[in-house]
Design brief:
By secondary structure, the protein is an alpha/beta fold. It has helices at about 10-20, 25-40, 55-65, 80-90, 105-115, 130-135, 155-165, 180-200, 220-230, 240-250, 255-265, 280-285, 305-310, 350-355, 360-385, 395-410, 420-425; strands at about 5, 45-50, 70-75, 95-100, 120-125, 145-150, 170-175, 210-215, 235, 255, 265-270, 290-295, 315-320, 320-325, 340-345, 390-395. It has 17 helices and 16 strands. The strands form 2 sheets. An 8-stranded parallel sheet has the order 1-4-3-2-5-6-7-16, sandwiched between helices. An 8-stranded mixed sheet has the order 10-9-8-11-12-15-14-13, sandwiched between helices. β9 (about 235), α10 and β10 (about 255) form a beta-alpha-beta unit. It binds nicotinamide-adenine-dinucleotide (NAD). The site of nicotinamide-adenine-dinucleotide (NAD) has 29 residues, from α7, α8, α9 and α14. Nicotinamide-adenine-dinucleotide (NAD) binds next to α7, α8, α9 and α14.
């Protein structure tokens, strides 16, 4: 199979979208220009499993410009932009295996399809390629595999668990852990686009609402900050004492989910954990509560428990909004005998990608430049005969500095430089005490 996209005729719209995003990705464009000349990935086959968005398209173009043969599949069944997928195939000659709304079977068939291209480099967002390689395609590990990169927190957590068990058999660069990624993409990208997904799906007015954020990591911080900016009263739930303390000192209410459940209007999970909102919480929710997730997998909201509590099948009341009707327990506001309604957005999947367009291009500029440079580093290590042991590697400080400087430059922001005296002072211990 050469490609599998929903409708190749959408290519024109997709190209417009890709070009629009490119305007806001100047750092990646500069990397692409250098890659065109230097061809650091010449002759390499690269499989990427990423959200198929306009920003990803510009990353794929960059990798192709570097000389790689790029094969792309989706890292989530609901995150594909079908017009972008079509444009990549038709206008940019990049094979894509992704359709928005694909079922689980098709999703994995697409993962397998890109692995059939026999990649020597992988690029994951959630470790689907790497885990499939280790479970089904171990032949690829012996066939010149140079390594891979990982885009998201949940993927890195899984890869570290594999490394700890001695199960990881290839080197991986943890792009997610680069400061040029998580401080910006997870915080400002997820913060803004998650609210956008919720608003597009429901048209809810956030001013005056009680907005519950589960998890105060990089994504949760951004989401809480932006929800407050829209006028919501924000409650944070956490399991980590330090993060909870940070949220409290940042001025948010902090409480257990069981308590928050009774007062929240809109709930969003961003923990990377499972069953963060479950039966005990649904039971306490108000009539009309909206529940969604921006964490990587669709396990943060326990939909099986909600389904078991609900009467009948959920009803799709708007695109990306399912209404579950639950017999109202006596302690909620709704009068006895009535049903209480709980609305689940985007089937509990990443609401910012399913119901909106994912992160804005400007922030993906940094994440994807870091991705491209991390890939170049893997190829360079191989070219120099440096054998990387199977492990999870950090992005080098040199790459972080390059990306940050280029982004600042593109924003017209200049910073100070150390004077020779300051440099000496910072490196000394005798002076000043
Ligand atoms: N939607 C997107 O576009 C997008 C972008 C980046 C990351 N992500 C995903 O979002 C998730 C969070 O990423 P992050 O970078 O913020 O991770 P993080 O590790 O920085 O933060 C996660 C936080 O959740 C807390 N937590 C864990 N279990 C909890 C529970 N039961 N209740 C309350 N809090 C709990 C942890 O203590 C931690 O503070 C991951 O799955 C990541 O892959 C999504």
């Amino acid at each position: 199979m050469e490609s599998d996209v929903a409708d190749i005729e959408l290519a024109r719209t997709g190209t417009g979208r890709i070009e629009w995003a490119d305007r806001d990705m100047p750092v990646l464009a500069a990397v692409r220009e250098r890659f065109e000349k230097e061809k650091p990935l010449e002759g390499k086959v690269l499989a990427a499993c990423l959200h198929v968005t306009a920003e990803t398209a510009n990353l794929a173009r960059t990798l192709k410009a570097a000389g790689a043969s790029v094969f792309l599949c989706a890292s989530n069944p609901l995150s594909t932009q079908d017009d972008v997928a079509a444009a990549l195939v038709k206008e940019y000659g990049i094979p894509v295996f992704a359709r928005k709304g694909e079922d689980r079977e098709t999703f994995f068939a697409h993962v397998r399809a890109v692995l059939d291209a026999k990649p020597v480099l992988t690029m994951d967002d959630g470790a689907d390629l790497v885990s499939t390689i280790h479970q089904e395609r171990t032949d690829l590990l012996d066939d010149g595999m140079l390594g891979g990169t990982e885009e998201t927190t949940t993927g890195v957590v899984r890869l570290r668990a594999m490394a700890k068990d001695g199960a990881l058999k290839m080197p991986i660069v943890s792009v997610n852990d680069a400061k040029t990624k998580n401080m910006f993409d997870n915080r400002y990208g997820t913060g803004q686009s998650t609210l956008e997904g919720i608003i597009r799906a429901t048209d809810v007015l956030l001013a005056g609402k009680v907005f519950v954020v589960a998890g105060y990591g990089w994504c949760g911080r951004g989401l809480a900050m932006r929800a407050r900016g829209m006028g919501a009263s924000v409650i944070v739930t956490e399991i980590d004492a330090v993060k909870a303390l940070e949220a409290a000192m940042d001025g948010f209410s902090v409480m257990p989910m069981e308590k928050a459940a009774a007062v929240g209007d809109v709930f969003c999970t961003v923990t990377g954990n499972k069953d963060v909102i479950r039966a005990a919480h649904f039971e306490r929710m108000k009539d009309g509560a909206m529940v969604c997730n921006a964490g990587h997998f669709d396990v943060e909201i326990s939909l099986p428990e909600l389904r078991a509590m609900a009467e009948g099948e959920p009803v799709r009341v708007r695109p990306f909004v399912d209404e579950y009707r639950i017999r109202t327990p006596a302690h909620t506001q709704v009068s006895a005998g009535m049903h209480k309604r709980v609305y689940v957005l985007a089937e509990g999947r990443l609401v910012n990608l399913a119901a909106a367009e994912g992160h804005p291009a400007s922030v993906m500029d940094m994440s994807f430049s870091t991705q491209a440079l991390a890939c170049e580093w893997l190829a360079l290590c191989a070219a120099e005969g440096k054998m990387l042991a199977p492990a999870v590697y950090e992005v080098s400080e040199e790459i972080e500095r390059q990306v940050a400087e280029a982004k600042l430059g593109s924003m017209g922001v200049a910073i100070d430089e150390l004077t020779p005296e300051q440099e000496k002072y910072m490196a000394s211990w005798q002076e000043g005490t």
